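Q: I'm writing up a methods section and want to include an example of the input and output format. Could you take the sequence below and give the corresponding predicted structure tokens, formatted cleanly so I can copy it straight into the document?
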Amino acid sequence: MPNHNQYLFLLSFSLTFGILLLVSFWVSAFLTARDIHLRNLILIGLPKDPQHPEMDVHSIQDFIKTFTQEDAIALVQTPAFLASAGLAAVAFYWLAFSGERKPVLNPNEWKEFPLVLKTQVSPNTAIYRFSLPSSKDVFGLPVGQHIQVSAEINGKDIMRSYTPTTLDQFDKGHFDLLIKTYEKGNISRHFSLLKIGDRIRVKGPKGAFIYNNKLTGHLGLIAGGTGISPMYQIIRSSIWDHSDATTINLIYANVNEEDILLRDELEHLHHNSAGRFNIFYVLNNPPPGWKGGVGFVTKEQVAHYMPSQDKDCKILMCGPPPMMSAMKKHLDELKYPAPRTVSKLADQVFLF
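A: Here is the clean output for your methods example:
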């Protein structure tokens, strides 16, 4: 069964062929009426008298001898000529400006991108938007992978890995990084001091995890703080892909309620997921009337909200090291396989 793109190709091909055929008939009739026959083009360069080839030969001047300047003006004013010129112009614009552009990222080359917007989302966290060379450019980052960011700090090149919250299929011309500023964090403090127009150096894609809608039937996600970034990217990609049937459960831990990052975006995805995506928040310092988890994420919460290890599932984790150590212990006690030191895509438990 042909898909939408195949139908579109057949329609555009048929329409273009029909217009060009009509144009050819119209132009041929126009020229024939002026005693100019396209079939005579084959005679150009041949002798006019085959018995005396040293004599004059047919030339382009012979072909157009009856084609005056007035005829040329009349031809370009015909609807057929105007239609073909318009079609050619549309085709040129499509090929030159609307075609698929190459990804900007290069895993072997550092590239610089300017900061164009900074949005504060919590007392110590902001979303930093960086511009790509063109508003039509795609970043070139597969869902689930990350980038390396490099900065010179106190005479040393410092590198850190970050996962953008933007997606190639939705976000053209820019990429966003969700970054929490730590008092002793070299790169995070560097970001907090950036001014509009300042540039960062980026290289990628990096990482062993690449999401697709046939990867697994169930995803269990455990995140803390800015560890929500790769999870948000995966959730967003899955929920807006209507061919994706993966169910997703997220445990998201933070200290205070105002520390819950991308909360509006996550809840918007939950409400539009047709029951495929659910969230359970955990806070160390909950406000009065809080209905989520309190304190640290417990083994019982993991057992309740994560898919069981005997299902077709994957558990993905990203967050502060102490939290990840505790989650590994919980998963081990629940009989999940232990994550490798460096996780692989095939692993049931993957640690970003």
